[in-house]
Every structure is written in structure tokens, then in C-alpha cells.
């Protein structure tokens, strides 16, 4: 019987001789595979396995802790890019603004919705199958020379998004934050469709009102000093009333309501292994409700 070889090699690099074992799995590892551990060294696979088993830090609302408001940066960037696109091609606003129901003539003119409509006219807006308008309108803003505010429209919205968005994102985490933002924007568009389907609307205000509602709900849930929060919400609600004659109050109110509902779910679902699943189910339920309301309204407008 031949004596057993005393040469031992790395389990990942069989040609490399080594006499060091992983302190976790006891396999031989070479210097390239060694990772410092509390005691001795571990192999690459054991280090990865250990990292997966470490519980990730979470916020009070279940989101992962992030050091930078990346989603807020991205949202501001998308709004600014869309605005630059408007300046280069103004027709973008006409095509992608939120519009529930309208008619377009062969001459390119726009007409109020009526059903049935003459054969020479074509339906435009959500009733015309342009469902993307429900979200794209939330990334567009008034051109510099149009409307009551002009370029102040995007400036005011982006400043608000920067101020409130960073706080909300830090508390909710990135996934919950973007879910809140998009559902708030969609909620604003749905209320516009239900109440004023013939009014074209643009702007991130609906989503920002949703962030404002989230800011208030989170502060209450965390037991924060409400004096500053109440002043902010008072200003937000006053702007909702004042802007009724200047902008789309339906979009503002819809975003506020949707954002409030989403954040109530994030804030008050009990902690536990199923919290994330319950939160996701509730957000999905709200999305389904908004879709059903949209389909019902479109059906009513076209029948």
C-alpha cells in the first residue's frame, strides 16, 4: 500500500500547494483565496455565505438604509432631461401630457371630447389608447414662456422634490420610495381623468403632494416634533387651495390621497417576516383600484 501524499493543494486552485485551512469549512485555501476572519482565515465561499446570513439594517418602515438619496437624484435628473427635451421639441408636451379624453382633427387641431364623434376626428388621450400619459405627464413641466409660472413651474417642483424627497427616501428606502412616488403620480392622473378628463395637465406636483403626505404620516408614526411638520402641511394645503384656480387641483389632491394611503400601509403594518409581503400586496391592491377606476371612466366616456 502506497503512503498517503503529504502535499495538500487549494480546493479552488489544485496546482497551488498550501497548508492553510478555512476555519469555517476546513478546506485548504491558497493565499489568493484567503480572507481575514475574526480567527484565522476563511475561503471566498464561506465569506459570501456569512455575508448573506448577516441581517441587513432596516429603517423603521422596513426599507434598507441608504447613505445617499440616489432615487431623488434620478427623479430630478429625469425631470430636467424631459424639460430639455421640451425645449428642443415642444411637441413632446402636446403628445405626452396627461389627457383623459380629447379629439384631434386632420389639421392637427384639438377639440373637446364628444361621443360619438365625426369620422374625420380621432380620439386622443387615455380614451385613445395613450395610457402612458398617466405617468409621462408627471415628468413634464410648463415651457419658459407659457402658463402662469413658466420656468418657475419646474424650479419650484424640483426644489420641493429635493427638500422632501431626501427625507422620505432615507426613511422608506429606495424601493418603497419609488413605489410611493409612482403611485402618487398615478393617483393624481386618475383623479384628473375622473373629474376633468378634457383638461391636459403636466407637472410633478401630484407626486410631490404624495411625498408631502408621506412626510406627515412618517413624522406622526415616529413621534417626531410636529410643529415644523404641521407648518409644512399647512403651507401645502394652502397651496392646494390657492392653486385651484391656477393649476390642476385634481392632480394635487389625487397625489396627496394616494401618497397618504401608501405611507399609512408602510408605517402601520406590524413588524415581522411578512411585513414586506403585506406592504407589497397593499400597494398592488391600490394599483389595481386605480386601474379599475381608469378603465371604468374610459368605458363610460366611450359608451
UniProtKB/TrEMBL annotation:
GO terms for biological process: proteolysis. This is Rhomboid family intramembrane serine protease. One of its GO terms (molecular function) is peptidase activity. It is a multi-pass membrane protein. PANTHER family: PRESENILIN-ASSOCIATED RHOMBOID-LIKE PROTEIN, MITOCHONDRIAL (PTHR43731:SF14), RHOMBOID PROTEASE (PTHR43731). It is an enzyme of class 3 (hydrolase). Keywords: Hydrolase, Membrane, Protease, Transmembrane, Transmembrane helix. It is found in: Membrane. The keyword Membrane applies.
